[in-house]
Records
---
Amino acid sequence: DTEVTQTPKHLVMGMTNKKSLKCEQHMGHRAMYWYKQKAKKPPELMFVYSYEKLSINESVPSRFSPECPNSSLLNLHLHALQPEDSALYLCASSQGTGVGNTIYFGEGSWLTVV
Amino acid sequence: GQNIDQPTEMTATEGAIVQINCTYQTSGFNGLFWYQQHAGEAPTFLSYNVLDGLEEKGRFSSFLSRSKGYSYLLLKELQMKDSASYLCAVRSGGYNKLIFGAGTRLAVHP
């Protein structure tokens, strides 16, 4: 079972709204990731959590705020977004962050900022 | 710098064999992954190479040459459902950071 589940599948929000994207995995993985993917572009890493601690922040604007409440859950809090932030947001997980750990992706959350 | 190159688009015939190439120049290298992504869906893991040579998994094989900074994904007995984007990704640096190529859109026709 290599399932990473994300909610909601689709989200439309205004530039003044506050919303959250949620991700869950029950594979016992200790590393979780947020990637952003624009249309016809490859995924770009945003954040990496390892053992519930933020390990990498790829200079992401503060209007994106990640949270890892426990080893199975990963949230992405959104506030004051811009239309150019509209994209597919992919959550992923892996057993660890060492060599050879495969990253498994969820189905993504389509975000539209209006 | 980090640079991963793949052809933008390829077409092939059902039942045929296709090879998708990937060349990379990255500041670090700890393995190369291939993912398949259908339009509007998440990437799904296909293969992983960290040592030179060929890895075979059913209809899919992947090859790596670290000295040449080169990999390819070989798809045999193509099926219509193989029409998708194929992403080459290099693990570079710590914390399992993946750098993706732009992807190759493969169209399989009858």
---
Amino acid sequence: EVQLVQSGAEVKKPGESLKISCKGSGYRFTSYWIGWVRQMPGKGLEWMGIIYPGDSDTRYSPSFQGQVTISGDKSISTVHLQWSSLKASDTAIYYCARRGFTAAGVGYYYYMDVWGKGTTVTVSS
Amino acid sequence: EIVLTQTPGTLSLSPGERATLSCRASQSVSSSYLAWYQQKPGQAPRLLIYGASSRATGIPDRFSGSGSGTDFTLSISRLEPEDFAVYYCQQCDNSLTWTFGQGTKVEIK
């Protein structure tokens, strides 16, 4: 079964650092981009960035560039999302998701086909 | 960055009715790169439609997508009780700077 398993919920104080993880299984981990998505309480989905575990090529949404760091360790089929100094506004659910693709005549269709269950991060003093 | 605007924000309908959800892009998006997701409370999003009109594996045929350029539509032909949820469009182009619409909530009238 293809799946992404995310690390457990975290409760942190403002200013603390944090690294959450997303582990892939059931497929060739190094061949698919993995993205991160934020969902603040009661709000919509926000695209944060994406990493290719095969060579750690990483892209960020302009809104999140410099705010978080996305990294990967292909030896353990895991990608990470980390903060160096959390703020209360980082309180959210964070999802990882695989970029799937399907041949489309010329080129490919892209989409997020496999999602983790989410990691809830609560930042409060 | 491409901005996606979904309308309406909330759609109040009864089971059995047809739902039509709109997603408008701030600039042209290849139909190959437009996807739709469903999210229910407490759950991760689920892929419904990719390539603007192709149903993902296991998605019932009451869900359909259409559109091109800057205007895309998700239709649900006859709402089932399990279809009441929030729906998001997403553009997934080659730049890898993807964006979501703000979502449309389909609620029971």
